[in-house]
Amino acid sequence: MNRFQFVADHQRRYGVKRLCQVIGVARSSFYHWKATAADRAARSAADDRLAARIRVVHRESGGTYGVPRITAELREAGHLVNHKRVARVMHGIGLSGLRLRRRHRTTIGDPAAAKAPDLIRRDFTAEAPNTHYVGDITYLPIADGTFCSATWRP
In the chain, where are the structural domains located? Predict the structure, then answer.
């Protein structure tokens, strides 16, 4: 529940001044909220109409269009709309565009390379400190621009 709505609901019994003091809001803020209720209702109705148009465009694109494309489609259809408003409404109704991203392959394994031996036989528990050291240095660069692939053993 909104703080201002609470004040509006209980103002007859306790008075606006006392309720605003208890809740910690300025009376002028409450009266401003009350005066702009019609504007908020009109904006909400306009957002609902815009949401219906956005759903149509999003459905026609197969769920792939995001904020920039939907904004462009709406403007092309003659609707004056800002991309920030489209983003806000889309977020409110749970729609988003399809994000296509390339996967960056960071490791290309050499099938001919010898596998490193498992010297500790997958037992990572140590009886005392400084008895087991495990590490991976596959990305250790060397001077000629390649990476070191040697395995170090103590």
Answer: 43-100
Please give the torsion angle defined by the CA atoms of residues 71, 73, 75 and 77, in that order, rounded to the nearest 10 degrees.
-150
DSSP character at residue 74: H
The type of residue at 131 is T
Q: How many CB atoms lie within 10 A of CB 4?
A: 19
CB 147, CB 139: distance < 8 Å: yes
Give residue 114's pLDDT band: very low, low, confident or very high (50, 70, 90): confident
Strand, helix or coil at 43?
helix
Q: Say how far apart CA 128 and CA 118 lie, in whole Å.
A: 20
Closest-CA residue to 69 (of 48, 90, 52): 90
Q: Looking at residue 138, what is its pLDDT?
A: 63
Regarding pTM above 0.90, the answer is no
Residues in the chain, overall count: 154
Measured at the CA of 105, the angle between CA 100 and CA 112, to 5 degrees, comes to 150
